[in-house]
Design brief:
The protein is an all-alpha fold. The chain is 87% helix and 0% strand. It starts with a helix and ends with a helix.
Length: 91
C-alpha cells in the first residue's frame, strides 16, 4: 500500500473514531439529562456514571494523539461537567 494512502486511511480511522467518541459523550449527557427530567431515584449515580463515560471518551481522544481533535476533547469534557452540574442542580 502506498505510504500516503496508508496515512490517509489511518487518519480517516482516527477521525471516525474521534467522532464516535464525541457522539458517545453526547449520548451519555443526554441520558443523564433524561434521567434527571424523569426524577429517577438513582439519578445521582446515573449522572456520575455518565460524567465518567464522558471523561473516558476525552481520555481516549487524548491517547489517540491525532492532530485537530482538541475541540472534540473539549466537547467531551464539557459534557462531563454538564453531567456533574445536573446532579448539583438537583441537590
Amino acid at each position: 500500500m502506498d505510504q500516503n494512502i496508508k496515512l490517509t486511511y489511518i487518519e480517516s480511522l482516527h477521525l471516525l473514531s474521534s467522532m464516535q467518541l464525541t457522539k458517545k459523550s453526547m449520548a451519555a449527557y443526554q441520558h443523564a439529562k433524561e434521567t434527571i427530567d424523569q426524577g429517577s431515584p438513582i439519578e445521582e449515580e446515573i449522572c456520575q456514571a455518565c460524567a465518567d463515560v464522558c471523561r473516558q471518551c476525552a481520555k481516549a481522544l487524548r491517547n489517540m494523539k491525532t492532530e485537530g481533535i482538541e475541540e472534540m476533547v473539549s466537547i467531551c469534557i464539557a459534557h462531563a461537567i454538564m453531567c456533574e452540574d445536573l446532579c448539583k442542580a438537583r441537590v
